[in-house]
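Interim report to the steering committee. The following record documents the input for Methyltransferase domain-containing protein (263 residues).
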Amino acid sequence: MQGSAIDIARHNADLFDRTEIAEWYGEQSLFASEAVILERFQHAYAGKRLLDLGVGSGRTTGALLPDVADYVGIDKAEAMLAVARRRFPGATFLDLDVRAISEFGPGRFDFVLGALAILSAFDHAERLAVIASVREVLAPGGVFAFSFHNRAWSRAGGMPLHARSWHPREIVNSVHPQSWINYLRLRPFAREEADYAIHVDPAHRWSGLFYFIDLATQERQLEAAGFEILARFGEDGRPLAAGDDTSRDGLLNLVCKKAGTSH
Protein backbone atom coordinates (compact mmCIF):
# COMPACT_ATOMS: atom_id res chain seq x y z
CA MET A 1 0.00 0.00 0.00
CA GLN A 2 1.46 3.34 -1.02
CA GLY A 3 1.67 6.41 1.20
CA SER A 4 -0.27 8.42 -1.36
CA ALA A 5 -3.34 6.31 -0.51
CA ILE A 6 -3.91 8.31 2.67
CA ASP A 7 -4.56 12.03 3.12
CA ILE A 8 -1.76 12.77 5.57
CA ALA A 9 -2.96 16.28 6.36
CA ARG A 10 -6.50 15.08 7.09
CA HIS A 11 -5.25 12.23 9.24
CA ASN A 12 -3.08 14.53 11.36
CA ALA A 13 -5.79 17.19 11.62
CA ASP A 14 -8.24 14.63 13.00
CA LEU A 15 -5.62 13.45 15.48
CA PHE A 16 -5.33 16.87 17.10
CA ASP A 17 -8.99 17.92 16.93
CA ARG A 18 -9.90 16.26 20.24
CA THR A 19 -10.92 17.97 23.46
CA GLU A 20 -8.59 15.98 25.72
CA ILE A 21 -5.60 16.62 23.47
CA ALA A 22 -6.47 20.31 23.14
CA GLU A 23 -6.64 20.70 26.91
CA TRP A 24 -3.32 18.90 27.33
CA TYR A 25 -1.56 21.18 24.86
CA GLY A 26 -3.07 24.19 26.57
CA GLU A 27 -1.08 23.31 29.68
CA GLN A 28 2.27 23.00 27.87
CA SER A 29 4.96 25.70 27.84
CA LEU A 30 7.57 26.74 25.31
CA PHE A 31 10.23 24.24 24.32
CA ALA A 32 13.85 25.14 25.08
CA SER A 33 14.58 25.81 21.40
CA GLU A 34 11.51 28.04 21.05
CA ALA A 35 12.50 30.14 24.07
CA VAL A 36 15.98 30.63 22.60
CA ILE A 37 14.65 31.61 19.18
CA LEU A 38 12.03 34.04 20.50
CA GLU A 39 14.63 35.75 22.67
CA ARG A 40 17.33 35.96 20.01
CA PHE A 41 14.97 37.15 17.27
CA GLN A 42 12.71 39.34 19.34
CA HIS A 43 13.75 42.30 17.22
CA ALA A 44 12.17 40.60 14.20
CA TYR A 45 8.66 40.54 15.70
CA ALA A 46 8.56 43.13 18.52
CA GLY A 47 6.07 45.85 17.60
CA LYS A 48 5.37 44.08 14.31
CA ARG A 49 2.85 41.76 12.66
CA LEU A 50 3.09 38.06 13.43
CA LEU A 51 1.34 34.98 12.04
CA ASP A 52 1.36 31.87 14.25
CA LEU A 53 0.79 28.78 12.09
CA GLY A 54 -1.08 25.86 13.64
CA VAL A 55 -1.44 27.79 16.88
CA GLY A 56 -3.39 24.98 18.51
CA SER A 57 -4.36 25.73 22.10
CA GLY A 58 -2.27 28.89 22.24
CA ARG A 59 0.87 27.29 23.63
CA THR A 60 3.06 30.00 22.05
CA THR A 61 0.57 32.85 22.25
CA GLY A 62 1.34 34.01 25.77
CA ALA A 63 5.03 34.48 24.98
CA LEU A 64 4.28 36.59 21.89
CA LEU A 65 1.25 38.75 22.69
CA PRO A 66 3.04 41.24 24.97
CA ASP A 67 5.55 42.13 22.26
CA VAL A 68 3.78 42.08 18.91
CA ALA A 69 1.64 44.85 17.47
CA ASP A 70 -0.61 42.52 15.48
CA TYR A 71 -0.96 38.85 16.40
CA VAL A 72 -2.91 36.31 14.32
CA GLY A 73 -3.03 32.62 15.18
CA ILE A 74 -4.57 30.11 12.78
CA ASP A 75 -5.66 26.50 13.12
CA LYS A 76 -8.30 24.11 11.78
CA ALA A 77 -8.85 22.13 14.98
CA GLU A 78 -11.99 23.52 16.60
CA ALA A 79 -11.17 21.91 19.94
CA MET A 80 -7.77 23.60 19.95
CA LEU A 81 -9.14 27.00 18.97
CA ALA A 82 -11.75 26.83 21.70
CA VAL A 83 -9.02 26.43 24.32
CA ALA A 84 -6.89 29.20 22.79
CA ARG A 85 -9.79 31.65 22.70
CA ARG A 86 -10.68 30.89 26.30
CA ARG A 87 -7.11 31.43 27.45
CA PHE A 88 -6.44 34.56 25.38
CA PRO A 89 -9.76 36.33 24.69
CA GLY A 90 -7.99 39.43 23.40
CA ALA A 91 -6.00 37.62 20.70
CA THR A 92 -7.09 36.98 17.12
CA PHE A 93 -7.54 33.31 16.29
CA LEU A 94 -8.85 32.27 12.88
CA ASP A 95 -10.25 28.98 11.68
CA LEU A 96 -7.97 28.74 8.66
CA ASP A 97 -5.98 25.95 7.03
CA VAL A 98 -2.21 26.55 6.93
CA ARG A 99 -2.37 25.70 3.23
CA ALA A 100 -4.65 28.70 2.66
CA ILE A 101 -2.49 31.48 4.12
CA SER A 102 -2.04 33.15 0.74
CA GLU A 103 -5.53 34.52 1.39
CA PHE A 104 -3.88 37.08 3.67
CA GLY A 105 -2.26 38.67 0.64
CA PRO A 106 1.36 39.65 -0.13
CA GLY A 107 3.45 41.26 2.61
CA ARG A 108 0.79 40.96 5.33
CA PHE A 109 3.19 39.83 8.10
CA ASP A 110 6.70 40.61 9.33
CA PHE A 111 7.24 37.30 11.14
CA VAL A 112 5.78 33.84 10.61
CA LEU A 113 6.15 31.16 13.28
CA GLY A 114 5.67 27.46 12.55
CA ALA A 115 6.06 25.84 15.95
CA LEU A 116 5.76 22.18 16.89
CA ALA A 117 6.70 20.98 13.41
CA ILE A 118 3.42 22.12 11.85
CA LEU A 119 4.84 21.70 8.34
CA SER A 120 5.45 18.02 9.09
CA ALA A 121 1.69 17.43 9.03
CA PHE A 122 1.57 17.74 5.22
CA ASP A 123 2.82 15.71 2.29
CA HIS A 124 5.73 16.83 0.11
CA ALA A 125 3.84 18.88 -2.48
CA GLU A 126 1.73 20.60 0.17
CA ARG A 127 4.80 21.37 2.27
CA LEU A 128 6.54 23.07 -0.65
CA ALA A 129 3.38 25.04 -1.40
CA VAL A 130 3.10 26.21 2.22
CA ILE A 131 6.73 27.37 2.23
CA ALA A 132 6.09 29.36 -0.96
CA SER A 133 2.97 30.88 0.62
CA VAL A 134 4.91 31.86 3.75
CA ARG A 135 7.35 33.80 1.59
CA GLU A 136 4.44 35.46 -0.20
CA VAL A 137 2.76 36.72 2.98
CA LEU A 138 6.03 38.01 4.45
CA ALA A 139 6.92 41.66 4.05
CA PRO A 140 10.39 42.65 2.79
CA GLY A 141 12.88 41.59 5.46
CA GLY A 142 10.31 39.21 6.98
CA VAL A 143 11.46 36.26 9.06
CA PHE A 144 10.22 32.68 9.11
CA ALA A 145 11.06 30.48 12.12
CA PHE A 146 9.91 26.88 12.30
CA SER A 147 10.67 23.42 13.60
CA PHE A 148 10.58 20.14 11.72
CA HIS A 149 10.95 16.40 12.25
CA ASN A 150 14.56 15.35 11.76
CA ARG A 151 15.20 12.45 9.39
CA ALA A 152 18.71 12.05 10.83
CA TRP A 153 17.33 11.43 14.33
CA SER A 154 18.57 8.03 15.51
CA ARG A 155 15.01 6.91 16.26
CA ALA A 156 13.36 8.23 13.10
CA GLY A 157 11.37 5.45 11.46
CA GLY A 158 11.49 3.29 14.57
CA MET A 159 8.65 1.40 16.21
CA PRO A 160 7.21 1.08 19.70
CA LEU A 161 9.78 -0.06 22.27
CA HIS A 162 12.32 2.27 20.63
CA ALA A 163 11.46 4.72 23.40
CA ARG A 164 12.70 8.28 23.08
CA SER A 165 13.92 8.12 26.67
CA TRP A 166 13.74 5.88 29.70
CA HIS A 167 11.13 8.14 31.23
CA PRO A 168 8.35 5.94 32.67
CA ARG A 169 5.69 7.63 30.52
CA GLU A 170 7.64 6.81 27.35
CA ILE A 171 8.03 3.19 28.38
CA VAL A 172 4.32 2.90 29.10
CA ASN A 173 3.48 4.40 25.71
CA SER A 174 5.84 2.01 23.97
CA VAL A 175 4.34 -1.16 25.46
CA HIS A 176 0.72 0.03 25.46
CA PRO A 177 -1.42 -2.14 23.14
CA GLN A 178 -2.90 0.95 21.48
CA SER A 179 0.58 2.07 20.43
CA TRP A 180 1.07 -1.17 18.52
CA ILE A 181 -2.43 -1.05 17.05
CA ASN A 182 -1.82 2.48 15.77
CA TYR A 183 1.68 1.71 14.53
CA LEU A 184 0.67 -1.41 12.61
CA ARG A 185 -2.33 0.38 11.10
CA LEU A 186 -0.24 3.32 9.85
CA ARG A 187 3.01 1.53 8.97
CA PRO A 188 1.85 0.66 5.41
CA PHE A 189 1.61 4.38 4.63
CA ALA A 190 5.21 5.13 5.65
CA ARG A 191 7.76 5.56 2.88
CA GLU A 192 11.32 6.64 2.15
CA GLU A 193 12.11 9.07 -0.66
CA ALA A 194 15.41 10.59 -1.77
CA ASP A 195 14.86 13.93 -0.02
CA TYR A 196 12.39 13.07 2.73
CA ALA A 197 10.52 10.29 4.51
CA ILE A 198 7.03 9.77 5.87
CA HIS A 199 7.25 7.99 9.23
CA VAL A 200 4.84 6.83 11.88
CA ASP A 201 5.71 8.99 14.89
CA PRO A 202 5.45 8.26 18.64
CA ALA A 203 3.07 11.22 19.12
CA HIS A 204 -0.09 10.26 21.00
CA ARG A 205 0.67 6.56 21.15
CA TRP A 206 2.02 6.30 17.63
CA SER A 207 -0.85 8.08 15.95
CA GLY A 208 1.12 10.62 13.92
CA LEU A 209 2.13 10.19 10.29
CA PHE A 210 4.69 12.91 9.72
CA TYR A 211 7.16 14.28 7.16
CA PHE A 212 10.83 13.90 8.14
CA ILE A 213 13.74 15.72 6.46
CA ASP A 214 17.39 16.25 7.36
CA LEU A 215 18.88 19.66 8.07
CA ALA A 216 20.90 20.08 4.87
CA THR A 217 18.02 19.02 2.63
CA GLN A 218 15.61 21.30 4.46
CA GLU A 219 17.98 24.21 3.93
CA ARG A 220 18.19 23.45 0.21
CA GLN A 221 14.41 23.30 0.08
CA LEU A 222 14.16 26.75 1.67
CA GLU A 223 16.84 28.29 -0.52
CA ALA A 224 15.10 26.99 -3.64
CA ALA A 225 11.94 28.73 -2.42
CA GLY A 226 13.73 32.06 -2.02
CA PHE A 227 14.81 32.07 1.63
CA GLU A 228 18.16 32.81 3.25
CA ILE A 229 19.16 30.81 6.34
CA LEU A 230 19.84 32.97 9.42
CA ALA A 231 20.25 30.38 12.20
CA ARG A 232 19.92 26.71 13.09
CA PHE A 233 19.08 25.23 16.49
CA GLY A 234 18.92 21.75 17.98
CA GLU A 235 16.02 20.46 20.01
CA ASP A 236 17.65 21.69 23.23
CA GLY A 237 18.18 25.20 21.83
CA ARG A 238 21.90 24.87 21.09
CA PRO A 239 23.12 26.69 17.96
CA LEU A 240 24.04 24.39 15.09
CA ALA A 241 26.50 24.75 12.26
CA ALA A 242 26.05 23.05 8.91
CA GLY A 243 27.22 19.46 9.20
CA ASP A 244 26.80 19.14 12.99
CA ASP A 245 25.62 15.82 14.39
CA THR A 246 21.84 15.94 14.93
CA SER A 247 21.22 12.26 15.58
CA ARG A 248 19.86 12.99 19.07
CA ASP A 249 17.44 15.68 17.92
CA GLY A 250 13.89 14.57 17.19
CA LEU A 251 13.08 18.12 16.11
CA LEU A 252 15.30 20.74 14.49
CA ASN A 253 14.71 24.48 14.11
CA LEU A 254 15.54 26.97 11.37
CA VAL A 255 15.23 30.72 11.19
CA CYS A 256 15.32 32.26 7.72
CA LYS A 257 14.32 35.38 5.81
CA LYS A 258 13.31 36.36 2.32
CA ALA A 259 16.35 36.29 0.10
CA GLY A 260 17.24 39.58 -1.48
CA THR A 261 15.60 41.71 1.24
CA SER A 262 17.05 43.64 4.16
CA HIS A 263 17.20 42.34 7.73
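The mean pLDDT is 92. The committee is asked to note this result when reviewing the revised timeline.
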